[in-house]
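hiii, so i know i said id send this last week but things got crazy w the move. better late than never?? heres the sequnce for the chain we talked about at the cafe, plus the structure i predicted for it. fair warning i was half asleep when i ran it
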Amino acid sequence: MDIKLAGKKIYLREFKEDDWTAVHEYASNELVCRYQPWEPNTEEDSRGFVRQNIYDAGLYPRKRYALAIIESETQRLAGAAELHIRDIHNGEIGYSLHPRFWGRGMATEAARLLIDFGFKKLHLHRIYATCDPRNIASYKVMEKLGLTFEGRMRENLLIKDGWRDSLLYSILETDLSRP
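okay and structure toks below
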């Protein structure tokens, strides 16, 4: 299944082999990965990321929907958004953007598209996301989307500056039907 999810400012699409250079522009940036368990990408890391996403798109049953975030107006690749199916009822979302696209609502729109896709097409019951407590922009996206703060997982992820806590947010399919 070739996925394309359209929003107002962006759309999400499957990765293509030649996307690796645009991925490398943001994934090699220290600011983008400072709260992540991965270091700034090498060129080979960026190529591998794209190749892995293309491979995963062809698996059945599919467990990862890692999609390129494309700015509608310019057709530029702005980042990546992912819905990872954890089990038959639960999925996890994540997103990364090039800093030139920060503060423009693209992460919020990408996450909203993934949540709608997860509930309406994949029939998930619960979708969750985590972030480093220092990543204010990321948890603000989750709050804007109506995700519920569930708590703080203590030292659950090892990153380059040591063990990191994670804030956990989620949304249920039934939350969308509430006024």
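btw Residues 43-57 form the longest helix (15 residues). thought thatd interest u
miss u guys!!
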